[in-house]
Amino acid sequence: MFIILLTSIWIQVVYESSKWIPDRWFIYIAFINLVEVILLPRLVYLFTGMQTGWFILIPWFFTLLTPFIVYVFAGGGLITETQMGKVDAEILAIARKYGGILTQSVVVWETKVALEEAKKRLERFCKYGEAYKRNIGSLIVYDFPSTRTYLSRTDNQIIELLRDNPYGMSRAQLLQATGLSIESLDEALKRLETKGIIYYDVESEIYKLMGIAPTTKNKGAAK
To answer: I need a labelling partner for 175 at 20 to 30 A (CA). Which of 2, 60, 199, 219 fits?
Structure first.
């Protein structure tokens, strides 16, 4: 009982002083404490032949480490639900900025995180059905349809065409694929350029999505 009391006090101290430990960790902690109190004294006796005595401090020592041992079992990182919510909101804001189409490299640029972390954040949305991963050749594109619902049907049509043709499309190709009039297409292209969702590559004379292949100019502005 003495060990359990000290355990409870220690856990509370660690929890109150740390913003990284979520409430759900108490479930893991309770389980580990139960194993420690029941099994460790017996294991000491089994391997040393000694009664617990002062060796009762061994499970207490492990108890001190419990909140940190739980880190391994919690499966991930020291991130609270609030922090994860901020990360999700940031990704959604970026997706909205780029018309709902992103690549890992764009997320790396916008958030200044490692490539593996960018992938992890994007895959999280795919896991919950909020985004869809598309493999187009050697390129991986993440589509967030809900972030472009505010755009017109024509704008969405152009974005989806450029999503499926990530290396760009010419004005003539877009005109043929959309079935729009020249005036309607030009208005939509200008509108999307103004929003920073697409850009026109003068050298190759094609339109591209900023979320797939951002221009050097846009990167400089992002700084």
So the answer is: 219
